[in-house]
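Friendly challenge for the regulars: who can give me the C-alpha cells for this chain first? No prize, just bragging rights.
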Amino acid sequence: DYVGPLGVDKEAAAGYTGEGVNIAVIDGPADTTVPELAGADITVKPMCDFTASPDSRSHATGMVSILAARGYGVARGARITNYSIPARSDTDKGDCSGIGIDDAISAAVADGARVISISRGGGSNITDGERQAIAGAVARGVVVVAGTGNDGAQDPAGFFASVNGTVGVGASDSAGRIQSYSNYGRGLAVLAPGDLDYHDLGNGGQVATASGTSVSTPIVAGFVAVAMQRWPQATGNQIVQTLVATATTG
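First reply, four minutes later:
Bragging rights claimed.
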C-alpha cells in the first residue's frame, strides 16, 4: 500500500535503497527463508537462547520484510541485523533472564548500526537501562526509530518513543491522518501508514492485513537509511531534523 504513495518504487529505481547503511531490527527472530527476502542482506543475531512463538516470529519477519523485501522493501539494499529477544507472547524464554532491549541496543551500536528500528511500544515496562541505552545510541549519532504504541492514548508513560532523541512513529491512514489506535503527544515525531494489505504466501497467496505502529516504524527507519545513503555526509541528527521538517500528508 505504501510503495506507490511514498515513492518507494521511484527511490529504488534511482538506486536509493539504503545500500551501505546498517539497520538494526530489535524484535523476535525473523524467518529469512520466506521468498520475499531472497537475496536480502539479513543476519539474525539471537541475544539469548529461547523458543519463539509463531506470533513473535511472524511479527519479526513482517518488520524485516518492510525494510528488505524484494519489490516492496523501503531499504532493500541495506545490511540488516535482526537482534532477536523474547516477546511477551513467547512462553519459553529459555536462558534470557536479564536480557532486554538495552542489551540489543548496545550490541547494535557496537556492531556499527546507524539506524535502530524498535516496533515495540515498551509501556510501563521500560527500564532505566533501556532509557540509558537509547540515550547512549542517540549520543553516538545513531537514529533510534520506535513505535508510539497502539492504545490511542496521549503521552502514555514509559514508551520507547517517549525517550528524548528518538523518532517516535505513529500510524496514519491513507489520507495521512492519525489512526484512532495510535498513541500521540510529546513522543510522536512523524506518521507513516499503519494499515497494510499484502499477499501472504504462507496462506496460499490470500490477501492478509497488518496494522499498528509496528508496521509504521520500519517504513520510517527505511527512509532514514535511504536518506543516509543519499546524503552520506549528513549526521544522524541532520537526517532526523530533515525528516520532521519535510514530512507531508501529500
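The chain is about 30% helix and 20% strand. The helical segments are 8-13, 54-68, 101-110, 128-139, 213-230, 236-246. Your move, everyone else.
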